[in-house]
Amino acid sequence: MGRVSPMKCLANFQHRGANMNFMRSILIGAATLAAPILTVTAAYADVAVLRSVSCFPIGSPPSVPFEEMVAEINKRGEGVVRLDLLGGAPAIGSPFQVAERLALGAYDIAGCPEAFFGNLIPEAPALRLNEYTFAELRENGALDYFQELMKAKGALFLGRHQDDGAFHVYLADPIDKPDLSGLNLRISPVYTAFFKAMGATVQRASMPEVYTLMENKTVDGYGFSLRGISPDWYKVTKYRVDPGFYHGAIHTIANLARWETLSPEAQEIVSSVILEFEVRIEPSSDYAKDLDAKMRATQAENGIQTITFEGADAEKWLSMAKDAAWSEFLAENPVTGPKLKDLFTKSN
């Protein structure tokens, strides 16, 4: 190999130095460009993301208030907490398994009526049978006691975000007295005991199945809350029985372990929104009464006639609804039932 002159060596060195400076400039530039990205990523990493689900089909009347609540929490919780709505039952699975899956950690937040988390906590029906406002339940210790039962199952009761009004019997054909003998009715656990006590045979089915069951006359009617009824059902429903019974409340529940990992700020944002929804939808509020009046008018406009029991018939209808439900409840909860009945009802 020939001898390389000192001048050539210097030139090579300067060339390599220039390349190194060039590479250093690229790296510095890349780091500068990446800094905002890293900052944004870090900011998003601080946001608590909660997996949320509805116990009803997304977009259905009973699910919409939960979806609105999720949107409001996300609006107020920007940069702190976000609820990702994964879907609703039955698309995500049986609504009767949502609460159990939530307690096991599959979900963090769920919007469900108590009928759908009775598998997790058998004392859940006390929520629909209550005779107080929710503000009163928070004051008299009823919800504190119920919360103890929820926590023992790995879940947390956050509040009632919606009340769809009283439950009613909806029929294809009229009845002239408070007697359901000979009728086959679609049910949920909410009114099973009542319908049976009134002589009906019953059939459980998911919400999306109701239209088909009514259309092909597999069932003669169904029970559902006043404001939760699907508009699709108007075509197969001819009568609504008054007065209504119980209340179609829908609640927000959470996975206890996940909730306890949230910052106080995140917990406060979620809780405050739920409480605002709870107060707004109280059945005695003007807002709720207005919704009821509009729904009654809408049902009438769509051909649903009202069968109204009065006097002794109305008293029998309502007393049977209450007595059948509490009788079933106390039989299934002999230890906790008496205390819950005392806390949730005004007369025992």
Which features does this protein show?
348 residues; 13 helices; alpha/beta; 11 strands; single chain; D-Maltodextrin-Binding Protein, domain 2; six-stranded mixed β-sheet; five-stranded mixed β-sheet; 46% helix
Architecture overview:
The chain has 348 residues and is of the alpha/beta class. It has two domains: 47-164 and 248-289, D-Maltodextrin-Binding Protein, domain 2 (3-Layer(aba) Sandwich), CATH 3.40.190; 167-246 and 290-326, Bacterial extracellular solute-binding protein, family 7 (D-Maltodextrin-Binding Protein, domain 2, 3-Layer(aba) Sandwich), CATH 3.40.190. 46% of the residues lie in helices and 19% in strands. It is built from 13 helices and eleven strands. The protein has helices spanning 6-45, 64-76, 98-103, 126-129, 134-139, 142-151, 192-197, 210-215, 256-260, 264-280, 286-301, 311-332, 337-344; strands at 48-54, 81-88, 109-113, 155-163, 167-171, 184-187, 201-204, 221-225, 239-245, 249-255, 305-308. The strands form two sheets. The chain has a six-stranded mixed beta sheet. A five-stranded mixed beta sheet has the order 2-1-3-10-4. Helix 7 (192-197) links the parallel strand 6 (184-187) and strand 7 (201-204). The longest helix is centred in the first third of the chain and has 40 residues, at 6-45.
